[in-house]
Amino acid sequence: MEYSNNQYGEVFADVYDDWYHDLDPVVDVVEFVRQLAEHTSVLELGVGTGRLAVPLAQCGLRVVGIDSSPAMLAALSAKPDGHLVETLLGHMVADMPDEQFGVVLLAYNTLFNLLTEPEQLECLVQSAKRLLPGAHVIVDCFVPSDHLPQTVAPHVVRTVGASSVFSEATIDQANQMMRGAFSESVGNGPARTWVVRYATVEQIDAMADKAGLQVEQRWSSYAREPFNDNSVRHITVYGKAPDRPR
After folding, report:
1. What is the DSSP string of 118-158?
2. DSSP SS3 for 238
3. Per-residue model confidence (pLDDT) at position 101
4. Mean pLDDT across the stretch 197-218?
C-alpha cells in the first residue's frame, strides 16, 4: 500500500497548543479513556504535542504515541511530563508498534488525516490487531453535513492575542476531500495549509466492520452527551466483533 504523507504536524506544531488547547475539557477525555483502558495501556495515533497523551500518562496509564512529525514530537518531549509518554516517529499505520493495548485512540479527526479510503481501512485493520482481549478503538471525527458547500469563504475562527485567525476551504464532494488554509491578521507568516479525507459515520462503521470491529458506544462528546441526528461530531468506541462463521 502507498501511504499518504500528510504534513499537517510540521505546519501546525508551533501553534497547535495555543490554537487547540480548548477543543475539549481534557479532564473529560482523560476520564473517558481511563475507564476504557482499565489500567492497561493506550496507543495514541497522531499523538502530536501530547495534548491528551501527557495528561493520560499523568493519571498512571502507560501511553505510547506515534506521529510522523518531528516538530510535534519535539514539542511533546519539551513539556514538563513529556518523558512519561513513549514516543515513536513514523507513519501511524505503516509504523504502528507491534504490541497490544487496552485502547487505541484516534482523537480529533486523526483518521481523516489519512488521505485515501484504503489507508483509513488499513488503519482500522491494524488497530484491531493491536487490541488486548476486551480492548477498544476510539474514533473521534466530525460528522460531514449532507449539504457541504464547494467553498468556505475566509472567516475568523479564533483570536490569539492581538491576532485573528482566518480560515478558508474548498470541498471536493466527489472524492470527499477538504483542503483549506489558516492565516493570521498579524504577522507575515505563510498560510498554514491542511487537507483531510472525510467519511460519514456509516462509512467509518463499514470500514470498521471490514476490520473485524463493532460499535460498542457512540457519543457526541467525551462528556457522554447523546449522539443524535443533529450531532456535528461523534466519539465512537469499537470493540472486536465475534468471529464470524466460515
Report:
1. HHHHHHHHHHHHTEEEEEEEEEEEE---TT--SEEEEEEEE
2. strand
3. 98
4. 98
What is the pLDDT at residue 79?
A: 97
Each domain of the chain, given as residue ranges in start order, spans 8-144+200-240, 151-196
Distance CA 192, CA 184 (A): 9
pLDDT in tens, 7-47: 888 999 998 998 888 888 999 999 999 999 999 999 999 99
Closest CA to 111 of 211, 39, 25: 211
Residue pair 222/235 in contact (Cβ under 8 Å)? The answer is yes
- Averaged confidence pLDDT in the chain: 93
Task: Please provide the DSSP assignment of 154-194 as one string.
Answer: EEEEEEETTEEEEEEEEEETTTTEEEEEEEESSS-PPPEEE
Under 8 Å between Cβ of 154 and 167: yes
**Mapping DSSP to helix (H, G, I), strand (E, B) and coil, where does residue 201 land?**
helix
CA distance 240 to 243: 9
- ∠ Cα 11 144 128 (to 5°): 75
Res 187: pLDDT = 61
Tell me the C-alpha to C-alpha distance, in Å, between residue 115 and each of 7, 36, 50, 101, 111: 11, 28, 23, 25, 9
Q: Which three cell numbers stand for residue 92?
A: 501511524
Q: Distances from the Cα of 131 to the Cαs of 6, 60, 197, in angstroms?
A: 26, 19, 25
Secondary structure element (H or E) that encloses residue 216, with its range: strand 213-219
pTM above 0.90, yes or no: yes
CATH architecture of 8-144+200-240: 3-Layer(aba) Sandwich (3.40)
